[in-house]
Amino acid sequence: MNLGSVAATSKDNASKGAPSIGGRQPVTFTATVTSTFGPIPDGELVTFFDKTTNLGTGTTVSGAATFTTSALLANKRFPKTHVIKGVYEGDGSFATSSGTIKQVVNP
Questions:
Q1: Which residues are registered as beta bridge partners of 3?
Q2: Which domain holds residue 49?
Q3: In this structure, what CATH number is given to the domain that contains residue 58?
Q4: 34 with 4: CB under 8 angstroms?
Q5: DSSP strand pairing (20-21 vs 97-106)
Q6: Total structural domains in the chain?
């Protein structure tokens, strides 16, 4: 089973991985979990990481889980690229899977 995608949107720009403003602009990450064995049940957890830092979790609704944060920061003078990973831990019927996206954050 694969994590279908981890797509990023921000309040002002809905394109995938669009730059956001560090510490001020919320960014919503959506993990779409799919399987060839049937739909993922509602209420399953997806954990979102910035590299190895746990950002938080979202629960699946119709196969998608979202998490919103404004905690991503940039360097003082330059943009910073964050690698966001969504991890679905699986359950008794579905295997663990994950997907990543790069989120650019401007100072």
A1: 33
A2: 2-106
A3: 2.60.40.10
A4: yes
A5: parallel
A6: 1
